[in-house]
Amino acid sequence: MDTDAGIDYGTFEDGRHVNYWELDQTLQRELRRGYTDDEFDWAESRLSAFGETVGNTIADNADDIDGHGPELEPYDKYGEVQNWVRYPEAQYENERLTYEQGIVADSFEAPPGRDEPMPLSHNLAMQYLLSYSDPGFDCPVAMTAGAALVLEKFGREDDVLCEYYDALTNRDYEDLIEGAMFLTEKQGGSDVGSNETRAEWDESAGYWRLTGEKWFCSNIDAEGTLALARTEDAPAGTAGLSMFLVPHADPDDTDGDGPYTKGERQEDGPLAPAETNDQFYRRLKDKLGTISVPTGEVEFTGAKAYLVGEEEHGFRQMAEMLNLERLSNAAASCGIIGRVLLESKIYAANREAFGETIDQYPLMRADLVDMAVTHEAATTYTFEAARLLSERERAARAGETADDAYRLMRLLIPIAKARTARMAVDTASYGMEIHGGNGYVNDFVTNRLLRDAQVLPIWEGTENILSLDVLRALEREDAHEPLQAAISERLEYISHPALADAAATVEAEFHDLMGALATLAGEDTEYAQLSAKRLAHYVFDVFTAALLLERAQRNLEEDENGRLVLVANRFVSRELADRAARGITSGGRFALEAYDSIVRYGPVSTDEVHGIVTDST
Ligand SMILES: Cc1cc2nc3c(=O)[nH]c(=O)nc-3n(C[C@H](O)[C@H](O)[C@H](O)COP(=O)(O)OP(=O)(O)OC[C@H]3O[C@@H](n4cnc5c(N)ncnc54)[C@H](O)[C@@H]3O)c2cc1C
Fold first, then answer.
1. In this structure, which of 135, 338, 431, 570 has its CB flanked by the most CB atoms within 10 Å?
2. Which residues contact 355 (CB under 8 A, 6 or more apart)?
3. 593-615 average pLDDT score
């Protein structure tokens, strides 16, 4: 229910059986800004329909699946290898509901009602909504989109790979396949260059054959897995890796009519042993969370495979997939933050302690204000990076380049993944505490969200590895140049007096950040690595602050709404300002005065905002 003060969260029982799109005004704003008018007009009702589905059927199914996840039945009753993963019925339903709403297809092929595909941001926005309910299932969705992107770029010349691309981007569940990416081996996940899996050309069969072990394989039974392997005489390290598409079923023993699909799987059940590819799904990992995606160990025993792109270009090609996977991870992190925030607002508006609902107490108000500001920051940054990725891919599809967008996105994406994953874990952990003892038990979704969130900093690259990637982007792409231009442009646009103090703080930090980048460029590797993580977070803070200030200025001009002024001020004060005595002596009561606006999305006039921002501690 909306009142003058904003959404009344006390009217909800918990954060399910609601429409996540309709309640998440932060995502709505960022997409309205990042999409063209045409795209937004087309997408709005569809995102709303998807938000409704995720908030109802998918949310209920996700809790069910968490208690009864996929199970591996490696052998049939005669002891022959069948590599069968048994999914609960609820999972088939979630898959159908998600893919048939175009989560992957719409960003690759023109959907009904449009002449062109939607930008990749749209795929990420849907992943964000899906992760409100099932961040585990978002992993296969992300890898299906990632595999499609790789085949779109590097598989165009090959008829078989085109068939796989068509199946990955299919709108019809019966004809759909999913993707996966197998990189990690026992001896190396971060150190992909240590991969030992071998690929040999089998002339008589007319296939490449893979031999070796993959140690962490999510969506283990995907119909179109991309794997890295080393061909004969290939050099050591990442330079010697090639990329292969490994079908789940033996490509010679399926019905010969394109790849083995979801429809065949659901109708026919386990493959006959003769129909399996030459591989063995050894076991599923017994994981903390993300139960809905089966992650296991695979032994390639001469698996038939197709080379993707050129030999020894595998790592470079995989990097293209990784850009999208890392942003998918960031979108999933934002979705988890959004759900935890929603659950926390609702719980706090209903739970009574000491005679009042707990959302009436100053400390709880400050907690919820800060959680909402974290959500704003994570979402704003992620969809800015998504906009750049989309711009670059749109240019690539048109046979053009978008150099600055590429260079900036190369810097922003590893940072997006690292920071939002950390924010998701911290937010899910504190959200649990807001639910008191209840938050710790399985009856409440906070328990699962924390377990699911905990993998986000690890897979797709740990925070240290991503921080080293930031150094690479700076060195190889001179990414500080487009970064400087992007921040300057935004700061120059700020003119409103209510933003002046925050803008001055950001201006000073921007100057220091550029100084830090110049210093690191002249330092030795050891010194640069020691600072890499701090640098990544520094870029996030300054860039996000500039984005929030810009959004705030625009909101004042276009809607005369000062809510984002409050958000921007709180973010800058929390992350960048040098506060005397940590703000304790400032006398400010910002969280109380800004609560309705920041937490409940209540509009706030320009006049009111002036009084509140005088002290944003
Ligand atoms: C649930 C789950 C699902 C997964 N699914 C997949 C999948 O589908 N496909 C796939 O390929 N992989 C998958 N992985 C593997 C995952 O990507 C790796 O575990 C991850 O990249 C880390 O690699 P590692 O385990 O080898 O750790 P290591 O590389 O051994 O890292 C251990 C620690 O050392 C640090 N470290 C390593 N090198 C450096 C350095 N140079 N400087 C500073 N610190 C360093 C890391 O940051 C980390 O903290 C999955 C993992 C999990 C948990």
1. 135
2. none
3. 89
Name all contacts of 231-240 with Cβ < 8 Å and 24+ positions apart: 231/198, 231/199, 231/200, 231/201, 231/311, 231/312, 232/198, 232/200, 234/311, 234/312, 235/312, 236/193, 237/193, 238/192, 238/193, 238/315, 239/193, 239/312, 239/315, 240/312
What angle (nearest 5°) sits at the alpha carbon of residue 541, between those of residues 535 and 542? Answer: 90
Please tell me the distance from the alpha carbon of residue 40 to that of residue 34, in angstroms, as a whole number: 9
Q: And the tokens for 147?
A: 């595999």
* Mean per-residue pLDDT, 27-38: 97
Residue range 316-339: mean pLDDT, rounded: 97
Residue pair 472/415 in contact (Cβ under 8 Å)? The answer is no
> Are 608 and 566 in contact, with CB atoms under 8 Å apart?
no
Q: Which CA distances in Å does 311 have to 149, 233, 315, 464, 611?
A: 18, 11, 10, 29, 63
Pocket test for ligand 1, best of 184, 197, 228 (most atoms within 8 A of CB): 184
Spatial distance between the Cα atoms of 390 and 383, rounded to a whole number of angstroms: 10
> What spacing in Å lies between the alpha carbon of 130 and ligand 1's midpoint?
25
Q: How many residues does the chain have?
A: 617
What atom in ligand 1 is closest to the CA of residue 219?
8
CA of 463 to the centre of ligand 1 (A): 10
Which of the listed residues 328, 465, 471 should we mutate to test ligand 1's pocket, taking the one with most ligand atoms within 8 A of CB? 465
Which residues have C-beta within 8 Å of that of residue 94, sequence separation ≥ 6? Answer: 57, 58, 61, 62, 65, 134, 137, 292
| Residue located nearest, by CA, to atom 32 of ligand 1 | 190
Under 8 Å between Cβ of 87 and 70: yes
Give residue limits of the domains in the chain. Answer: 9-141+316-453, 179-313, 479-615
Task: List residues near ligand 1 (CB under 6 A).
Answer: 181-184, 188-191, 216-218, 287, 290, 295, 455, 458-459, 461-462, 464-465
Among 3.40.50.300, 1.10.10.410, 2.40.110.20, 3.40.50.1010, name the CATH number for the domain at 179-313.
2.40.110.20
Quote the pLDDT of residue 191.
Answer: 93
Q: Is 16 left (phi over 0), alpha (psi -120 to 50) or beta?
A: beta
Q: Residue with the nearest Cα to atom 14 of ligand 1?
A: 216
Rg (CA), the chain: 24
| Dist CA 459 CA 470 (whole Å) | 17
The ligand 1 atom at the shortest distance from the C-alpha of residue 461 is 21
For ligand 1, atom 48, the nearest C-alpha belongs to 462
- Residue 188: the pLDDT is 87
Q: Report how far ligand 1's centroid is from the alpha carbon of 123 (Å).
A: 25
For a ligand 1 pocket test, name from 456, 462, 468, 469 the mutation site with the most ligand atoms within 8 angstroms of its C-beta: 462
Specify the ligand 1 atom closest to the Cα of 460.
Answer: 17
Q: Domain 9-141+316-453 classified CATH 3.30.420.40? A: no
Q: Hey, which residues does 295 pair with through a beta bridge?
A: 218
Which residue's entry shows tokens 């009561």?
589
56 - beta bridge partners? none
Task: Dump pLDDT digits (tens) for 405-445.
Answer: 999 999 999 999 999 999 999 999 999 999 999 999 999 99
Alpha carbon distances (Å) from 134 to 99, 169, 328, 382, 524: 14, 21, 13, 19, 43
